[in-house]
Structure formats: C-alpha cells, structure tokens
Specification:
This protein is an alpha/beta fold. The chain is globular, with a radius of gyration of 18 Å. It has helices at residues 22-29, 58-63, 88-91, 109-116, 198-203, 221-224, 246-249, 274-281; strands spanning 2-7, 39-43, 49-52, 78-82, 104-107, 131-133, 140-143, 146-152, 176-181, 186-190, 209-213, 256-260, 284-286, 292-294. The chain has a single domain (2-290), classed as Metallo-beta-lactamase, Chain A, CATH 3.60.15. 16% of the residues lie in helices and 22% in strands.
Length: 295
C-alpha cells in the first residue's frame, strides 16, 4: 500500500486564517512548513487512489500532488472518497469535487445523513457520484485490490450538530476508524479519537502502519495558549502527552505510527521543540503535507 498525506493539520490548517499564535506566525513567515487540513490518499498500484476525508483544502492539495492530476481531458486518478465523520474539515472538500467526474463516496449511514440534511451537498450529483452506505465491521472493496472496514471510535457529533448536552465518547457510526488491507499488510487511519479504549487496542493490534489523531499535545492546550475555551477531550480528541495520552496508551503497538490531524497550536510543529523530540523519541512520525509512505 502507498500513502500520500494530502493534509496533516486539523481543522483550520496551519496557519489558521484568524490565529496569531507562534506556530501560525512562523508558518506565515516560512520559518516552519504550512499545512493543509487533514486528508490522506491511499493506493495499491500508484495509479488509482482513494481519498480518506475531503478537506476544504482539497483542490490545492490535489494541485500540489502530481499523483492526483488528471491524465486526460476530463479525468481523475481518484476512484473513491471515504469519510470518517461529518466534521466540516472532512466533508467541505466534497464541494470542490462536484464537476461531474465519477468516483464512489463511502460512509456510514449516519455520516451520509449529515450530507443529506445539508442540501448544498446535492451539488455532488448522486447519479455521477454514488453514495455507498457502509455498515460497521463489514469489509468492502474501497479500490480494486484494497479492502477497507469501518469500526466505531470514541468521539462525538460534528460541532455544528451539538446540542446543550454533548457526549464526547460516543461509539457508533458518527466517528469511525478505517482498517485497510491489500492482503499482505494492514494499516489504520484514525484522525479523530476521544480516548484509546482496550477495545480499540484490540482492534488495531494487527497494524503494520497507524495514522492517528495528533490534534493536541495536552488536554488544556487551547486554554493554555489563549486560543480557545475547550479541553481537547471536550472537542473529542485525546491528547498526545500524559499518563493516559495516546503515546502511553499506544506504546505496546508494534506498528509504524504517524500523528496526523495536528492542531495549529500543537508544539510538535516546531522542529526544535522538546515536545517534537519526545514524540520522535518514542518512535512516532509527524505527518507533513506531501509525505509518502509505503508498506
């Protein structure tokens, strides 16, 4: 399997349009690399690709990646798009893929309902782009030679669907992880996860490669930096650090591990930070736009 990181950042990207934090200012000045919003492409042959989550930056991300360019007058190497939740940073890019070129769109029934309830997504013609509903824990063909399976991951409903009471550790169709297999190797893509449960550890135990939620370094990051009022877990994202953070909880996993969906405030963006050194010292990679991985 071949993986291409189209976007490594969380919602808003790096720099975020309205943020003057150190990371965003450094990205504007070119002192660190800018990053688009989270999206990952996967292929088994290097010619036909599936896109996992269509970020609002998808047009620019595809332009920057020659593997995503059309090979004829009206063409795309994209055979399918798969959505892992209904968050804006994962579905808004569908509106840039509305020009009557066929591909398949895979999601759970709950995620498809988010699209159906927002009629702007009818611009993506269902007669050209079929919406395929996928049941949890049932394997399906994402591309020829590539089998996928969706499974529940602790999370919450999209921000724009929140009510007065918000459950952040829901396990159902609203937030899913993806298991990918070409019959020889197995990879997982989990860009949003509120907590690493024992059940989730059992699910991903066979991973050769893991792309995992790296949104925040610590749970109070947004509050501490003055950029927000919510903890990471309130936003549905487990922190990287801490005794029950993702590095500790996933330390027994033998897979190659990569953090993706990284918030603009996260100190691991800084090349010389102690936090980045800690992450890489514990065997993790940090995703970057354009990064290619093969297993």
């Amino acid at each position: 399997m071949k993986f291409l990181v189209l976007g490594a950042a969380a919602g808003g990207g790096l720099p975020q349009w309205n943020c003057g934090c150190d990371n965003c200012n450094d990205a504007r000045a070119g002192r660190i690399s800018a990053s688009g919003q989270s999206s990952l492409a996967v292929s088994v042959d290097g010619h036909s690709w599936a896109i996992l989550n269509a970020s609002p930056d998808i047009r620019q991300q595809m332009q920057a990646s020659p593997r995503m360019h059309p090979r004829a007058l009206r063409d795309t190497p994209v055979g399918s798009v798969l959505l892992t939740n209904g968050d804006i940073d994962h579905i808004a890019g569908l509106l840039s893929l509305r020009e009557q070129t066929p591909f398949q769109m895979f999601a759970t029934g709950e995620i498809h309902k988010v699209l159906a309830d927002n009629r702007i997504f009818d611009a993506v013609n269902r007669e050209v782009v079929p919406r395929v509903t996928v049941a949890l824990d049932q394997p399906f063909e994402l591309l020829p030679g590539l089998t996928a399976k969706l499974f529940a991951v602790p999370g919450k409903v999209p921000l724009f669907m929140e009510g007065t009471e918000v459950q952040t550790d829901l396990e159902g169709e609203q937030t899913v992880g993806v298991r990918l297999s070409d019959g020889a190797k197995t990879a997982y893509y989990i860009p949003g996860c509120a907590t690493v449960t024992d059940k989730l550890l059992d699910q991903i135990a066979d991973a050769d490669q893991l792309f995992f939620d790296g949104t925040l370094w610590d749970d109070n990051e947004m509050i501490r930096t003055g950029t927000g009022v919510k903890t990471g877990r309130r936003m549905g994202h487990i922190p990287i650090s801490g005794p029950d953070g993702s590095i500790v909880r996933l330390s027994g996993l033998k897979a190659a591990k990569t953090f993706i969906h990284i918030n603009n405030t996260n100190p691991i963006w800084q090349p010389d930070s102690l936090e980045r050194a800690f992450v890489t010292g514990n065997g993790w990679q940090i995703a970057a736009d354009g990064q290619e991985t093969e297993i």
